[in-house]
């Protein structure tokens, strides 16, 4: 474990040096991934981005039969129940991380609201962390990422430029009955987290 911590600490420092960055964004989505930052002695803040459950279920149903992006990733696709379970697990997992980690601060964002107001929300977040931005990385809804380093993950999220788009396909892909079923199944978690997800 000590060797892994040392190697990770070195790797993050090397990536920051190569990019000329004072801040590194880690997109870990699991409790161990975030808590590993504690072992590395990192000073970090957490951002929990929560997407509405119908969109997650619709994406799960849509991606059935799609090959996984890499050997380490979970198989994509599944049933409505699998999609609901993934949404519940991901958001309860995020809450667990917020509770037990040593993060200096934590924020929860609504995904759809972020897509509508990405630049404003990002700049406000950066300011709240005391990080002076060199300039806004946004041109409309397109964000210029500059240097990025990714070992695994969705190749569509890589690269130096990403355009944010609202995804309302779930409205036509899910029947009204399925939408109500998903809302009913996820209501306890949505309610516990503070209200309706748009």
Task: Summarize the structure in words.
With 198 residues, the chain is mainly alpha-helical. The chain is 49% helix and 9% strand. It contains eight helices and five strands, in the order ααβααβααβββαα. The strands form two sheets. The chain has a three-stranded antiparallel β-sheet, with no helix packed on it. The protein has a two-stranded parallel sheet with strand order 1-2. The longest helix is centred in the middle third of the chain and has 21 residues, at 80-100. The radius of gyration is 18 Å and the shape is globular. The relative contact order is 0.16. The mean pLDDT is 82.
Sequence-ordered SSE layout with sheet pairings:
Elements: H1 2-19, H2 31-39, E1 46-50, H3 53-62, H4 80-100, E2 106-110, H5 111-116, H6 118-128, E3 138-139, E4 142-144, E5 161-163, H7 169-173, H8 176-192
Helix pairs in contact: 3-4, 4-8
């Amino acid at each position: 474990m000590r060797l892994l911590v040392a190697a990770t600490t070195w790797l993050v420092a090397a990536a920051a040096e190569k990019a000329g960055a004072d801040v590194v964004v880690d997109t870990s989505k699991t409790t161990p991934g975030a808590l590993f930052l504690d072992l590395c002695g990192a000073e970090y803040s957490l951002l929990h981005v929560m997407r509405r459950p119908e969109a997650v279920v619709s994406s799960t149903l849509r991606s059935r039969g799609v090959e996984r992006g890499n050997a380490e990733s979970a198989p994509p696709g599944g049933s409505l129940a699998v999609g609901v379970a993934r949404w519940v697990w991901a958001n309860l997992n995020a809450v667990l991380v917020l509770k037990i980690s040593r993060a200096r601060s934590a924020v929860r964002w609504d995904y759809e609201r972020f897509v509508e107001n990405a630049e404003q929300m990002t700049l406000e977040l950066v300011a709240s962390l005391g990080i002076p931005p060199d300039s806004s990385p946004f041109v409309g809804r397109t964000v210029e990422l500059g240097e990025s380093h990714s070992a695994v993950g969705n190749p569509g999220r890589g690269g130096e430029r990403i355009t944010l788009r609202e995804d309302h396909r779930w409205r036509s892909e899910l029947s009204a009955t399925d939408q109500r079923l998903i809302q009913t199944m996820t209501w306890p978690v949505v309610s516990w987290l503070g209200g309706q997800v748009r």
